[in-house]
Amino acid sequence: MAIEAFGAEAVSVVTTETVQKGPSILDIQPRPEAVWLDELRQRQVGVAVWKSGLLYGAAAVEAFATAVETFGEGRTVLCDPVLAATGGERFLDGRGVAALRDTLLPLGVILTPNLPEAAEIAGMGPSDWEAMAREPELRLRAAHELLELGAAAVLLKGGHGGEDPVRDLVLERDTEPLWLEHARIAGPGMRGSGCRYASSVAALLARGESLPEAARRAAEKVLEWIRQGVCVDEGSR
User: Fold this and answer.
1) Is 84 exposed, middle or buried (0-12, 13-18, 19+ CB in 10 A)?
2) CA-to-CA distance for 32 and 131, rounded, in angstroms?
3) How many CB atoms lie within 10 A of CB 165?
4) Hey, what domains does the chain have and what are their CATH numbers?
5) DSSP-derived pairing of the beta strands 49-52 and 166-172
6) Could you report the per-residue pLDDT of 107-132, keeping only the tens digit for each?
7) What is the pTM assigned to this prediction?
8) Could you tell me which residues are beta bridge partners of residue 155?
């Protein structure tokens, strides 16, 4: 849906199958890394941008990093770091987060975390994301730390904060930080908003947009979907 909305075409490779009800995960079945890596190798011809979503466990993160290194050359790689479901079920434990930090970020991926994800990946304390929600300077510090770990750019979503308007941060290497503001919409959250945002950014990058413009247009589209009540649920990533 998100990718097609911007005139791009998705080529999907499934890494994990889940059964979900509302914000909760009822069942999760990771596929063998060797199987989906082979599919990725066969289906990646002509694909300009790779976007990773749910990578279940350290082995999956390391497998994707291997793919980026061995046959992802010349492609933009965007990583949506799905650490946990809305209901709290973890997809990446400590080993998985360490693998993300140590093997994937150094390859120069574009990272699209929310506030708690950014705080955890950056190695900040468990309560730091709540402080980040109140203090934009802490968000900037976390984003700079993620660049130091190797990310090419960070799109830090501000939805978990409390301010209105919401402030998203776009930080690229050797550039000034860009803050994008948009209204906070009252009401139930939209399940999958983080995935839709990252997928929209990937589609726009594939269409030749700059990263700041892709971030701006993706945020506007997600807001439109929230207003329309698309996939409204009890919570949202």
Assistant:
1) middle
2) 38
3) 12
4) 2-228 (3.40.1190.20)
5) unpaired
6) 999 999 999 999 999 998 767 777 88
7) 0.90
8) 170
